[in-house]
Amino acid sequence: MAQKPKEKISVAKARCACGAVRLEIDHPAFWAWHDHSEASRRAHGAAYATYVGSWKSRFRVMKGATNIRHFEDKAAGNRRSFCATCGTPLIYERACAPKWINIPRAIFETRTGREPRYHLHIEEAPEWVYRGEPLGPLKGYASVMCERARRRKPAELAGFQAKNFGM
Ligand SMILES: [Zn+2]
After folding, report:
1. Does the pLDDT of residue 113 top 70, yes or no?
2. Distance between Cα 89 and ligand 1 center (Å)
3. pLDDT for 10-65, tens place per residue?
4. Phi, psi of 107, deg, nearest 5
5. pLDDT at 9
């Protein structure tokens, strides 16, 4: 079966929820990574943030530069930028990597040329994060899935094994 050839792209485009801000990086991005740090979790209001990293020299604000606001975490030396209208996180700059810029993967409209295969600060991930446990439909609620087996904590599991298997 003939596969449809992938459209060649030279730039990866991103935008905020309201469309006031549009960003662009040269394709492909340098890398992509999942950030499990508490700081990014809080800044995104999400379990973790997935970023696409690019050299700053390959990054451009295409629209809405005046609509971008910044939050500087002076203690950490990091800067986060977001849309003043809709609040979408747009840019994460880290003091430890001054020539790089990170853009949330979720705001891209196109492919970025990199898959997120790296996990940073995984030790900061909270216990309530979904880790791919098996799901089943919740009876009576069309769009709700429910975890089938409750995750057991290591101590609980050890007790369970000792009780049931004499381990
Ligand atoms: Zn916006």
Report:
1. yes
2. 9
3. 999 999 999 999 999 999 999 999 999 999 999 999 999 999 999 999 999 999 99
4. -95, 0
5. 86
CA of residue 22 to ligand 1 center, whole Å = 9
pTM of the model: 0.83
The CATH number of 11-124 is which of 1.10.10.60, 1.10.510.10, 2.170.150.70, 2.102.30.10?
A: 2.170.150.70
Distance in Å, CA 105 to ligand 1 centroid: 16
Nearest to 22 by CA among 79, 61, 66, 54: 61
- Tell me the CA–centroid distance for residue 86 and ligand 1, in Å: 4
How many Å apart are CA 46 and CA 69, to the nearest integer?
A: 20
In this prediction, residue 158 carries a pLDDT of: 57
Domain positions in the chain are 11-124, 135-165
Computed on alpha carbons and rounded to an integer, the radius of gyration of the chain in Å comes to 20
Q: How many angstroms separate the alpha carbon of residue 72 from the centre of ligand 1?
A: 19
